[in-house]
Write a structure and sequence with these properties.
Shape: globular
CATH class: Alpha Beta
Number of domains: 1
Oligomer: single chain
CATH topology: TIM Barrel
Largest sheet: 5 strands, parallel
CATH architecture: Alpha-Beta Barrel
Strand content: 5-15%
CATH superfamily: Trimethylamine methyltransferase-like
Number of strands: 20
Helix content: 40-55%
Number of helices: 17
Length: 486
């Protein structure tokens, strides 16, 4: 039996959805995009163009929720399916868009450069329990105007996994789309086998900016999957209660569903977000707070109630180092996400309120994810009944280390983490150098970098990616790219 956890009753979910719908149909949403306002108006939604404001209709909302797909897949660079976003399937991906990297040598945060990003892709490529990569770091050695496209370029050049990404300008979307078409060879093939998910973020409370709403329209036009990242902050720009925050999150997310489905019915979406409670003592937004995790798991239930696949920023930490707090917050988050059946879990590797990536934490979080997967596999009998013969063997041999039963089922029953997790006797630990978690994690990172093998990317595709990125860089005043040869 697969273990599961719930935070909301069906009755409470229905009440939250009803309240959110009422807010959209009475108070409405700010939308700073004339094309989106015109589209909504064409579908019968009252707009005030001067105030950039729209109120939705229940008919438009109902239709959009029916048009949105209940599930969709993701595919790697080679076209192999890696994700099935349906039911309670769970996939982990690193957190995204960090401004800093935790330098393992100095123990200090610093701005990342291209070499750091390439190392991140190489490490992520080899982690068994991380199904996709993300545009996790913002390299400081290229102009900000090309940082969105450059990160996707490096992810596709050095890795084969699907990419969770996003555009923080309207202009960068086109080349990011062209990268994907270059890999797939046609727009039709890209639609059939999506390679990326784009994050589209409404602004709390109840607002869509020009950039994010345009990104949403552009993704819908090409059937590129999107994840909605609403970020209400309980007690600051959202009601202080978790239920009130869920009402706001639901309204903001449904507004995005409506825009995407009116633009192109059937656009794949993830009902996601990155909400948090607001810590009034420190004036921070703790992603590792238990209440934040409860909101994530609860809106996941709302998304499933609406028959939509889900996403959450969870399984990350607010700590500034790879320490006990980092393990505590990330571990609790991963377990809750897995038990809740959140389909796409963003967060492994992240520290410091979503602003820092640590490669050492990423390899630790990979083991946490593996443990979470073992947890949701649950407990099932494996040739355990009748038990008499097995226990006769145990009483006779005094152990079952080499029994047929053990050899058949050991790998499925017991999860064995990698070397970053220490399970040895103290004497062996001391003999091996009495290494700390940080040291073991850094050693594993170095081992993965040393053992990295370049993915099998067709030469003509690689040339096209480099050509597109070079042209984009020149368009923004940079003649050369700092990326290293594969």
């Amino acid at each position: 039996m697969r273990p599961k956890i719930r935070f909301l009753t069906d009755e409470l979910i229905e009440k939250i959805v009803s309240e959110a719908t009422d807010i959209l149909c009475t108070l409405g949403v700010e939308v700073h995009n004339d094309a989106v306002l015109a589209m909504l108006s064409d579908h019968g939604c009252p707009i005030d163009k001067g105030k950039c404001h729209v109120t939705f209709t229940s008919a438009v909302i109902e239709r959009a929720l029916k048009d949105a797909p209940e599930s969709f897949g993701l595919y790697d660079v080679t076209g192999k399916q890696t994700h099935d976003f349906s039911g309670f399937n769970v996939y982990f991906t690193p957190g995204s868009t960090a401004l800093n990297i935790l330098d393992a040598q100095s123990g200090q945060m610093r701005r990342p450069i291209t070499a750091d990003y390439v190392d991140f892709v190489k490490v992520t490529e080899q982690l068994d329990h991380i199904a996709s990569t993300s545009t996790a770091l913002i390299p400081a050695d290229v102009p900000e105007s090309i940082s969105d496209s450059y990160r996707l370029f490096l992810s596709l050049l050095y890795g084969s996994k699907p990419v969770v990404t996003g555009a923080f300008s309207i202009e960068s979307f086109e080349v990011m789309k062209d990268f994907q078409v270059a890999v797939r060879q046609s727009l039709g093939a890209l639609k059939e086998k999506p390679l990326t998910i784009f994050s589209c973020c409404p602004t709390s409370p109840l607002k869509w900016s020009l950039v994010t709403s345009q990104n949403l329209l552009d993704c819908a036009r090409y059937s590129i999957p999107v994840e909605f990242i609403a970020m209400p902050l309980s007690g600051f720009v959202a009601p202080v209660t978790l239920t009130g925050t869920l009402v706001q999150h639901t309204a903001e997310t449904i507004s995005g569903v409506v825009i995407s489905q009116l633009a192109n019915p059937g656009t794949p979406v993830l009902y996601g977000g990155s909400p948090a409670v607001f810590d009034v003592r420190c004036e921070t937004t703790p992603m590792g707070a238990i209440e934040t995790m409860m909101i994530d798991c609860a809106y996941n239930e709302i998304g499933k109630y609406l028959n939509l696949p889900t996403q959450a920023y969870i399984s990350l930490s607010d700590s500034k180092q790879l320490d006990s707090q980092a393990g505590l917050e990330s571990g609790i988050g991963a377990v809750l996400a897995a038990l809740s059946g959140i389909n796409s879990v963003s967060g492994p590797g992240m520290l410091d309120f979503e602003s820092c990536i640590s490669l050492e934490k990423l390899v630790l979080d990979n083991e946490i994810c593996g443990m979470a997967f073992r947890l949701i596999d649950g407990i099932e009998p494996r040739d355990d009944f009748p038990s008499g013969e097995l226990f006769q063997e145990l009483l006779k041999e005094r152990h079952l280390l080499i029994s047929d039963h053990t050899r058949r089922h050991l790998a499925a029953e017991h999860f064995f983490p990698g070397p970053v997790i220490d399970r040895s006797h103290r004497s062996r630990w001391q003999r091996d150098g009495a290494m700390t978690l940080q040291q073991r994690a850094h050693r594993q990172v170095q081992g993965l970098l040393d053992g990295y093998e370049t993915p099998d990317l067709a030469q003509d595709v690689e040339k096209e990616l480099v050509k597109l990125m070079s042209e984009e860089a020149r368009r923004h005043g940079q003649d050369g790219l700092p990326h290293r040869p594969r």
